[in-house]
Every structure is written in C-alpha cells, then in structure tokens.
Design goal:
The protein has about 375 residues and is an alpha+beta fold. The protein has a single domain, classed as Hotdog Thioesterase (Thiol Ester Dehydrase, Chain A), CATH 3.10.129.10. About 25% of the residues lie in helices and about 25% in strands. The chain has 12 helices and 11 strands. The chain has helices at about 10-15, 35-45, 50-55, 55-60, 75, 160-165, 170, 180-195, 225-235, 245-255, 275-280, 290-305, and strands at about 90-100, 110-120, 130-140, 145-155, 215-220, 260, 265, 310-320, 330-340, 345-355, 360-370. The strands form 2 sheets. A 9-stranded antiparallel sheet has the order 2-3-4-1-8-11-10-9-5. Strands 6-7 form a two-stranded antiparallel sheet. It is globular. About 45% of the residues are buried.
Length: about 375
C-alpha cells in the first residue's frame, strides 16, 4: 500500500470496520468534567460565562452547580472517526451534535464510537478523497446517553501523493495574509468586547419571533496562541499520537506522520495548524484553525443567547473552508421556526460564519429548548423523540 495515497485496498480495509466498536484512547482528553476541565475548555474558546466558571453564580442557577459548555463533548471524545488509510491526511468536515441533558460538574463519561459510513468523493480542491462519518455516544455515570455526535472527517492525499493527484495548484499555494488597517483592528476589537449574555434572566419561548437575529460572536484575527489555547482545553497532542516516546510508538503502529523537510524528522501533520508550510503541504493554504474549535465558537454564541434557563439541543455545522491564521470570523444566527413538541418550546435556527473577505467559513443549523411562561423549568432528560 502506498503511504499517503488513497487506494482501493485502503478503502476496503476501512470499510470493514463499519459498525465495529472502536478504541478511543487517542480521542480522549478527559473522562470527568472537573472544575479544571470545565474552565480550561471554556478558556480555550474564550467563553467566560459564569455558569461555567463561578460556583457561587451557578448555585443560584436552575442546575444548582457548575455546568460545562455543551461542546466539552469534544474533550471527552474528539469525534474524529478516521480509521485505516495509512498516511492519508484527515481534515475535520463537521459535527452533528444532539444533547439530551446538561453536562454538570464532576459528571463521568464512557463513550461508544463506530464508523457508520464511508464515501468516495471528488472535487475542485481534492480530485479524490474519502468522507468518513462516525457516531459517538456519550454515556454518563448514571448510564444515560447525555449526547450523541456524528463526526464527519475528510481523508485527503498528503505531500507528494497530493501533488501526484494533480490537485488544484491554487490550493497548494500559500494564501496571502490579510493585512488589516488600524481602524479595522479597532472595530473588530470593539465588536469582540460588545458580546452580551442573556445570563440569569430567562429568555422565554413566547418572546422569540421567527426571523429574529441573535447577537453575533466575533473571533479573530486568529493567532497561533488562540489555537494553542484550544489544544490545552480540548485535546493536547493525544489526537496526533502524543509526544516523545508515545509519538514514536504511535507512528510505528499507524504510519501516521508528516516528514519535516527541514529537519528530516517525522512529526505530526497537526503542525500544519501552527505552521504555514505544513498547512500548505496538506492542502489548506497555510496555518489554520481546528474545525471543532470553530464549531465551539458557534455553541458559545448560542448559549450566550439562550441564557442559563435555555438548553442547546442540537447543533449541526459543516466546515466549508480553512480558517487561516490572521482570519476573523463573524458567527451569526437567525430564527427560522418555532413550535411546541411534546410540551417543549423548540426554536430552530440557521447559523453561519463569514470571514473578513466575505467568504463562507462554516454554516449549519441549531435547535434550542426555551422555558415556557408559567410552565416551570425545562425537564431533563429530553425525550429522544424530540429530535
């Protein structure tokens, strides 16, 4: 089998694992949502919600304890289900999350992950690539399924194999950095600091109207430290096989590495998130963010809007293009529908992220459950039939 190349043999090996329970050692950063785990994740996405961070504040909330940001599921399992295809790059394509109850302080989880589907694709940026779709169930200490993630991962040729595929040269070329004026930077900083939270004041189902726009969340210009903050709260180096001896053992078993042309050393292709030349080598145009990081920013926007009394039920986001170091994103949301289902007030939204060039970076849908006037607090867990 040719390293870094998508072959019929590699596709068949991966397909044989469909619906097989998979090991997840490398996808697990935490098992328990301790106070440190919660705040490190929140800090990693720039979310200072006191419901996540301040015990005294959380004590007066409907939950009577600290709550974890919903996307902390990424730290419990990274949702990358990308088996086999030795040396073939994996690029995160998106997640469909469903949550049934809040994730609380000191909840402990086990996960069950399976490859559910594999599709051979072709497109402008990659003439031949594979889309692998996995399902991850998050089961808490009470043996309840708290959440389900459907993770989508693009498997693409890497390095010389990518060139042999005659990939679009524009995608191989490093993208020029956007140079902001001082006025643009000042305006972005003003928008970042203008962020508001609904907080402890309930947002009632009855107060929401179709076509309402929710307050945006602005992130950027993206810096390398922003990416490192995500790693510290969500995954460390575990997704890439670890470091030092662990990394050597991982590479010897999985042939998953990137050859540093300057030093001759075998390293993780994950360095492309931090370095322009490697980002270009894997077809991204330069150093770029981590896909789940971008999706977690969308969760931040939604939990700001619904406040302490609302609940994020579903979030389905597809990553459309690389978010490069230096880019700024504006996450926005619009209410598209609302209805009562099984007694719950459900509001559905369209969400999207656009960069400073006006390009679509990510988009998708979300649904939230809001309290109804004179009906009391939301009852958990939500019925699975609500989806």
């Amino acid at each position: 089998m040719t390293w870094g190349t998508i072959t019929d043999e590699g596709i068949a090996e991966a397909e044989a694992l469909i619906d097989v329970l998979l090991r997840r050692d490398r996808m697990k950063w935490i098992e328990t949502t301790t106070r440190d785990a919660i705040r490190h994740f929140a800090w990693g996405i720039g979310d200072n919600n006191p419901l996540w961070l301040e015990p005294e504040y959380a004590l007066s909330s409907p939950y009577k304890t600290l709550v974890a940001p919903p996307c902390i599921l990424y730290a419990l399992d990274g949702t990358v289900v990308a088996p086999k295809l030795a040396g073939v790059q994996w690029l995160y394509a998106g997640t469909t999350f469903t949550w049934f109850e809040p994730i609380l302080l000191d909840d402990t989880f086990k996960v069950e992950a399976r490859l559910k589907k594999q599709e051979l694709k072709s497109g402008r940026r990659f003439p031949k690539w594979v889309l692998q779709t996995g399902e991850i169930k998050y089961i808490n200490q009470h043996d309840r399924v708290v959440g389900i993630a459907i993770g989508r991962c693009a498997r693409t040729p890497r390095g010389e194999a990518l060139s042999k595929e005659k990939k679009n040269k524009k995608a191989l070329k490093a993208t020029d950095s956007y140079t902001y004026t001082s006025d643009e930077i000042a305006d972005i900083e003003r928008q970042v600091l203008a962020e508001r939270r609904q907080g402890s004041t309930p947002l009632y189902y009855e107060n929401v109207k179709v076509s309402d726009k929710i307050q945006e969340v602005v992130r950027g210009p993206l810096g390398v430290i922003d990416i490192m903050a995500w790693y510290s709260g969500q995954q460390g180096a575990t997704h890439y096989g670890g470091v030092h001896g662990d990394a050597i053992r991982y590479r010897s078993r999985h042939a998953d590495y990137h050859l540093n042309k300057k030093t001759g050393a075998k390293e993780s292709a994950g360095r492309g998130h931090l370095e322009t030349s490697t980002g270009r080598d894997v077809g991204m145009g330069g150093a770029y963010d981590v896909g789940p990081q971008r999706i977690a920013w969308c969760q931040h926007m939604l939990t700001n809007w619904i406040g302490d009394h609302g609940f994020l039920h579903t979030l389905d986001v597809s990553v459309r293009k690389p978010n490069l170091v230096g880019d700024t994103l504006w996450w926005t949301g619009d209410v598209k529908s609302k209805n009562i289902r099984e007694g719950y007030g459900v509001v559905e939204l369209m969400v999207r992220a656009v960069n400073q060039r006006g390009e679509l970076s990510a988009d998708g849908t979300a649904s939230v459950v809001l309290p109804r006037r004179n009906k009391g607090s939301i009852k958990f867990p939500l019925p699975h039939a609500l989806v």
